[in-house]
Amino acid sequence: MPLTVHHLQVSQSERIVWLCEELGIPYKLKLYQRSPVLSPPSYLALHPIGAAPVITDGDDVTLAESVAVGGDNVVVKPSAGRKEYAEYLYWLHFVNGTLQPAMGRAFSLRLAGVDEDNNQRARVENKLHQALSHLDNRLKQTRAWLAGEQFTVADIMIVFSLTTMRKFMPLDLRMYEGILGYLRRVGRREHYRRAMKKGDPDLDAEEALKGPPPEMFAGLKRK
């Protein structure tokens, strides 16, 4: 039985579709539409906390959490050297440990209508800028991928936050030249384009790779 990727469309589970394409492994793709913003009941039933992504392998393996899934040819191993391995580990966990929480906090305050001159919102927005500037400087340094010359699962992890996630939280990236150059490199990867076409055929992936905020997710417009 092939691996089954349960993809909640317009979500971070796009990472796993992309990963499977990069690895060239056979998989079955099941698509689930948001209803209208959150996961539908059929997706929530897959995992106790209704997490996305979810993969199943046969009848006895169900796995959630993007970072729990990887593959030998998209990881940096300890044998590559202490510095290289440390950089890989740091940037792999930077996404869910620093960047995405910073984006989530900023989005929550904006959604709650907190004024821009509010001290708490100012601190949160500043932390987000710090995280993006840190990432921007790293990408200017490597001029390639997060871990260095090698494309890794760290890159697969972070691209969602810089692209599709911005459909839920308008974020302008035009001041971050390193990030924009990085997203252009991502857009040239055949496996990324193929994954997005399979998993989210109605999503304008090219728009999300650019600096201006992409169009807001339709379910949020109706609110």
Automatic annotation (TrEMBL):
Residues 81-205 form the GST C-terminal domain. It holds the Pfam family GST_C_2. InterPro entries: Glutathione-S-Trfase_C-like, Glutathione-S-Trfase_C_sf, Glutathione_S-Trfase, Glutathione_S-Trfase_N, Thioredoxin-like_sf. Residues 197-223 are annotated as: Disordered. Transmembrane segments: none annotated. It comes from the Eukaryota. Belongs to the GST superfamily. This is GST C-terminal domain-containing protein. It comes from Friedmanniomyces endolithicus.
